Task: inverse folding
């Protein structure tokens, strides 16, 4: 068994195509009783090996795209935390096994952030600040794109306004390697998949998103100001909102798991859903919707709140939902991390944090 790790780095020392041609010769002539594994973290360059024009095309017996840990898998690194805390840890630190191994589960989120991401000598800080963009030729522009996306999803026109006001067309070329590396992704409402105007870009990795949102913007303070004060003044006031947006993605993963476990049939897709409200002359998106084959929808409101969801909150959301006359509603539910008050009724589904982390 021979393993060549970080294969793309070999291409830094000579012609990229020559390296592939050398390995083509090795595979075709010398692997009589040898299993060869080629791996690498630069997803775009590894995908290139699978293209027909590449010398190694058609020479792989098995192809594995190893994804990061899910929210449920990552929670094994901090098993004694509450569901509310587990969501927060995953929203900040993501699903990298290496990063999660550095977390001290006996400490709270604040101290883990300070120790792992405010210390420039810490391996997690280095990972977040440089590892994922170390292979890009234009690191400065990649950083600018990530900074622009750190507050949430952005459409192409919004990014263009921030990064390419002269509309030179360079932005599209600069987004391409980030998409190929899967550092960022392009998302669209499940009922507008092919509508370019409704599509948006977002950072794929939770830790990288947190780094560009909070750490990089306060980097100059890390050497001078009390780290606890930086957290309390620059992070704490908006952290709940940051986590809430990440919670929507966790809720989506949970819902797919629920659909597959319960073997719910005729589900086409799960995700955000775009709607028009011509009566009130507004439009918007629902957090989480199951789209059925018969074009009916199951709508879920996703709530990351410190308190339980009560009937007032439910009534407000139901009122908004029923205003949209175009919807063919099948069922309505809530996913509330801290559960529901005793007076909550009129819902088809009621999921809480214990449901999300039920193995």
Result:
């Amino acid at each position: 068994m021979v393993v060549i790790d970080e294969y793309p780095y070999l291409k830094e020392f000579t012609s990229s195509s020559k390296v592939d041609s050398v390995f083509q010769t090795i595979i075709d002539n010398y692997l009589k009783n040898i299993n060869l594994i080629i791996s690498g973290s630069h997803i775009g360059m590894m995908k290139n090996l699978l293209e027909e024009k590449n010398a190694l095309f058609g020479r792989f017996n098995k192809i594995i795209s190893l994804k990061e840990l899910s929210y449920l898998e990552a929670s094994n690194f901090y098993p004694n935390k509450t569901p509310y805390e587990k969501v927060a840890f995953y929203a900040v630190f993501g699903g990298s096994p290496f990063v999660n191994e550095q977390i001290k589960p006996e400490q709270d989120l604040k101290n883990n952030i300070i120790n792992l991401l405010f210390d420039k000598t810490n391996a997690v800080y280095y990972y977040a600040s440089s590892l994922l963009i170390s292979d890009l030729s234009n690191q400065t522009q990649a950083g600018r794109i990530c900074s622009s996306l750190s507050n949430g999803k952005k459409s192409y026109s919004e990014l263009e306004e921030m990064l390419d006001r002269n509309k030179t067309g360079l932005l599209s070329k600069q987004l391409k390697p980030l998409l190929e590396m899967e550092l960022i992704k392009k998302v669209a409402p499940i009922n507008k998949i092919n509508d370019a105007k409704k599509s948006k870009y977002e950072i794929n990795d939770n830790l990288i998103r947190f780094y560009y949102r909070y750490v990089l913007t306060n980097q100059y303070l890390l050497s001078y100001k009390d780290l606890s004060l930086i957290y309390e003044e620059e992070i704490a006031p908006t952290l709940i909102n940051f986590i809430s947006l990440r919670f929507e993605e966790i809720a989506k993963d949970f819902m797919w798991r629920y659909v597959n476990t319960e073997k719910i049939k005729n589900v086409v897709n799960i995700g955000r859903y775009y709607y028009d409200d011509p009566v009130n002359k507004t439009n918007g998106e629902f957090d989480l919707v199951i789209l059925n084959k018969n074009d009916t929808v199951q709508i879920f409101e996703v709530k990351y709140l410190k308190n339980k969801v009560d009937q007032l909150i439910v009534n407000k959301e139901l009122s908004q939902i029923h205003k949209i006359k175009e919807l063919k509603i099948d069922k309505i539910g809530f996913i509330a991390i801290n559960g529901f008050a005793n007076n909550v009724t009129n819902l088809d589904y009621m999921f809480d944090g214990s449901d999300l982390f039920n193995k």
